[in-house]
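Researcher: For the annotation table, I need structure tokens for Chemotaxis protein CheY. Please keep the output clean. Sequence:
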Amino acid sequence: MKLRTYIVEDNATIRENLIGTLEELASVEAVGVAETEDEGTQWLSTHSEQWDLAIVDLFLRQGSGLGVLAACRTRRPGQKMVVLSNYATPDVRMRCAQLGVDAVFDKSNEIDALVDYCVLHSSHPPGVDASGSLSPPSGA
């Protein structure tokens, strides 16, 4: 099963390379992209049934990835939010954790870790446990 992934990244070269790498190595399907906080926030909130993973850069052409993350704090169970940034400092990682981010990856040296994260989550999609059986609904 492909991991439906939405990417918020304003650098076209990085975005296209990332999509190519993840689609080739991690069973990821890019369902959309945004270059600004407003585009990312609007799409993720109005298409909540259409994505499993959002990959968000922090520094965007307009706005900030932090705004996108804050807008998605109440996402559906099983949906993952990760940050891919050149500024993955301890302070940034702490702020992301406060916003409910599932993982933070540094663009300069943690792309392999992001690929591994996507592989793990594409093999165990939301609602399906490790055996491939449907998980009981939360609260059951």
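Researcher: And a one-line annotation?
Model: The beta strands are 3-8, 28-34, 53-56, 80-85, 103-106.
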